[in-house]
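Notebook entry, structure prediction.
Reason for the run: the old model in the group folder had no record of what sequence produced it. Starting over properly, with the input documented here first.
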Amino acid sequence: MPRLARLHAPGAVHHIVARFVNHEFFFDVPGAREKYLSLVPRAIRGSGWLPLAFALMSSHSHWCFEAGHAPAWIVIQRLHTAFAQWLNRTLGRIGPVFSERYRDVPVVPEATPVVIAYGHNNPVRAGVVVEASHSRWTSHRAYVGLDEPPAWLAVPRALELCGFGTGARDRAAFDAFVAACAGRERDDLLAGDAAARLRRDVRAASDAPLEITESRVTGSGDHPTARSEIVASAYMPLEILSRPSPAVVISRVAECLGLRPESLRSRARVRALVEARRLALAVWVLAIGGRQRSMADALGLSESAASQLLRAAWAREDPRVGAIATACCPRDLVAKVAP
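New structure, fully documented this time:
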């Protein structure tokens, strides 16, 4: 299944969560947290990304960044590759250190305070400490003036984004705000788990190969909400009330290319027939929103062969796709095509 589309907006706040493989407690290795944080300056160099807050739990990390001009993966790849190499050398192990893809949750300005408080309260929720200020491995102590912040941590900027100043009274108010948020349970939205579930629900409801971006955290106060965007092919009608059969699409494609429909179902690998099968898959999946497997079966193709042809279709814009899709469906049932 394709990955969730990343959202990248320079200047926006991003909450990034990365977990270790098999929920391993790699940050409990002596010196691991110190080493991880020492790698941050090199990771952000030249990217424009500004670290606002962090929390290093035994099995995962939380970060809040203000996004720079570079994509997030450059910063995270630098940081995690260097740390993984150090950890593997230290433990004499081979293999991946981080599990799957990191979660990246963009945050609108009014939701920034609750997201940073959520990160600082991770040790409290885990029962490691009673208060956020008791943990050495979040940025909270730097916010409230108990520890000197590392040079790369933008505490004044973060406090400003949260609506607080840098004076003693403002820092005490921020500490009280985080304490007031300490009772909040683990939140799938803030942890970045909501987008995957939303994607599955939207695809199932639409019965179309739509892509869903990762969630943005919106709203303020105690009840932030998720907002995701739908990403569709330029060929895909926004709504189809009636879908033709794969056989109808094959016939239309064959007619357009001057071929016999049955030739598309043969095993011949003539270039013209390969092109025709690619076009049939593009019309069926990208424009009409049918399931890839249905057209693969109709053409006598394996799933892997169909996927390869469809990838080629994604890589190019073919004006015939929309025209054939319109010809396959009654005109009053074909919705406006997205630009």
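Summary: The longest strand covers residues 13-19.
The old model has been moved to the deprecated folder.
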